[in-house]
Amino acid sequence: MELWFTENHTDNVRFSIKIKRQIVNEKTPYQQIDIFDTEEFGKVFVLDGYIMLTEKDEFIYHEMITHPAFAVHPCIKNILVIGAGDGGTIRELTKYDSVEHIDMVEIDERVVAVSKEFLPFTACRLDDPRVHIFYQDGMEYVRARGNEYDLIIVDSTDPLGPGTSLFTREFYSDCFKALHEDGILINQHESPFYKNDAEAAKSIHGKIAGVFPIALVYQFHMPTYPSGHWLFGFTSKKYHPVGDIRCADWDTLGIKTKYYNTALHAGSFALPNYVLEILQY
Amino acid sequence: MELWFTENHTDNVRFSIKIKRQIVNEKTPYQQIDIFDTEEFGKVFVLDGYIMLTEKDEFIYHEMITHPAFAVHPCIKNILVIGAGDGGTIRELTKYDSVEHIDMVEIDERVVAVSKEFLPFTACRLDDPRVHIFYQDGMEYVRARGNEYDLIIVDSTDPLGPGTSLFTREFYSDCFKALHEDGILINQHESPFYKNDAEAAKSIHGKIAGVFPIALVYQFHMPTYPSGHWLFGFTSKKYHPVGDIRCADWDTLGIKTKYYNTALHAGSFALPNYVLEILQY
Question: Which of A10, A76, A251, A280 registers the highest number of CB atoms within 10 A of its CB?
Fold first, then answer.
């Protein structure tokens, strides 16, 4: 017998992974959660039919969503993370001794629970004493904050289902207000390749660039996401992601990474012409 | 009715494209050629079951295999291209007025013939008077050359089937001999992500670095290749691909590109840690 999981990247493109067994199959009030065990990718975590992470390549996503801000901002102490219930982003953030406080806002308590049980490679630091988890809507949480954070990370799903409100101009304005005057916002920015993803990337950039003085986009290779070409946004009130990079300081910290390094950091902001055109830089 | 083409990226990973119709299905003395028409990618050109190019993203591969050498070497006149029967590499090379002579060595005459008939978007410049096509084995052709070329491009298939000899140390030594004293070799370098591809990338780099004084690798996003994370080698007798880049000179040429630009050129040589480890830089 063969068991295959298939994700539709578009109506005309399918990506399929051979499954050893299904570990979780649960409908929560917010979404459908599935976890599979696979030969190629180890554990595969799926929300509403879309791969969120695999054990084999999650390090790329989680390193790239966290470390660039730390190589630019000289002292990140207070952090807000929205989404990220699998814990991978938290695992990377807790590598920094300078970090004093992390508020994590995840709408779906079950994501954290199943991650703790079945995805220990990402969930391993969710019990760090600096981490404070709030199970509520990210947009509502941010609305009530002001001048509190050095860094906000929006580790959202796609602009569908429970994550939709995290792609509005109103939300980005609330993030601006919640950040200190030298604060940085990093957000999941979709992909430039397939039409729907590219339209989302364009829309996100237009909204953020209307709110923040510095709004740039960086790219990375994410093999299990559609097209493998994925983007994050580096949005900031003060620091430029390349001009203000402090390579030697970051290197001195001795943070162990498998994808990120400071040369790659600078390189990842050099985008292809067709991506620049989509974003209308 | 639905018709789907599936490529096995590994034994456990499949990539499938919805097909409108099959245009070519031909067994040559060297390989199986298929061409499909698709909604998502336009024409899709397949050799021995592996996607060689699609109309939607071939520009990425063909721009990245050609333009970096021209932004570094001040005067490329004589070029040898091995493989590349679809014509996409030739299309990009013929954008340069400085180019005087291009020898193209393609083992399979039928690849050129079907490309001219069905892939005009890549084959459009194969009749340029500067292009001289030889239908023979690339390795044998190079063996007989000495001090003739400014640039050699090895636009090969994977290290399987008719392309195998293009991945030997002997072949790279013959390329060294065939190049001028400031010559550059650009080669298809596989991918770092899936095990077999990564082993090939490691093997290629080890062999080339044993022959040329400068042997570096650069990366790009190739959505229809396995993992979307693909590599080319920039190997050189004299010029460093980043240290010797002449951005202003290249920009002055006014070459139109959809992926390549000189900022991205420099950035593409900044590799992730896990790739550096595979290549043992």
Answer: A76
| Per-residue confidence (pLDDT) for residue B157, from 0 to 100 | 82
At the second CATH level, the architecture of B58-279 is 3-Layer(aba) Sandwich (3.40)
Contact A10, A226 (CB under 8 A): yes
pLDDT at B19: 98
pLDDT of amino acid A129: 98
Q: What is the pLDDT of residue A159?
A: 81
Q: How far is B65 from chain A (nearest CA, A)?
A: 14
Residue B161 has pLDDT above 80, yes or no: no
Mean per-residue pLDDT, B138-166: 90
**Out of A228, A267, A274, closest to residue B267 by CB:** A267
pLDDT band of B113, cuts 50, 70, 90: very high
Which residues in B have their CB inside 8 Å of a CB on A? 4, 10-18, 38-40, 57, 60, 193-194, 219, 221-223, 227-229, 257-261, 263-274
Nearest to B228 among A228, A261, A269 (CB): A228
The ranges of chain A with pLDDT < 50 are none
Q: Is the Cβ pair A223, B223 closer than 8 Å?
A: no
Cβ contact (<8 Å) for A12 and B40?
A: yes
Neighbouring C-beta atoms of residue A201, cutoff 10 Å = 22
Tell me the C-alpha distance between B168 and B28, whole Å.
24
Over residues B67-76, the mean pLDDT reads 98
- The arithmetic mean of pLDDT across residues B260-269, rounded, is 98
DSSP structural state of residue B64 = H
Residue A174 catalytic? no
Is B263–A274 a contact, with Cβ atoms under 8 angstroms apart? no
Name the active-site residue from A150, A155, A174, A197: A155
> Which residues in chain B have their CB less than 8 angstroms from residue A36's CB?
none
Cβ-defined contact of B270 to A268 (cutoff 8 Å): yes
CATH 3.40.50.150-classified regions of chain B: 58-279
The pLDDT, as a whole number, for residue B166 is: 84
Q: What is the mean pLDDT of chain B?
A: 96
DSSP states of A28-94 as a string? -SS-EEEEEEETTTEEEEEETTEEEEETTTHHHHHHHHHHHHHHHSS---EEEEEE-TTSHHHHHHT
pLDDT band at B203 (very low <50, low <70, confident <90, very high): very high
The pLDDT value recorded for residue B160 is: 74
Q: Which residue of A has its CA nearest to B38?
A: A12
Residue ranges in B88-241 assigned as alpha helix (H): 88-93, 109-118, 120-123, 138-143, 169-178, 195-209
Per-residue model confidence (pLDDT) at position A75: 96
> What residues in A contact B255, CB-CB < 8 Å?
none
Check: complex ipTM more than 0.85? yes
Size of interface A-B (CB pairs under 8 A): 119
CATH 2.30.140.10 boundaries in chain B: 3-54
Residue of A nearest to B2 (CA): A12
Determine contact, residues B46/B158, Cβ cutoff 8 Å. no
Mean pLDDT of B154-163: 81
Token code pair at residue A175: 């993030």
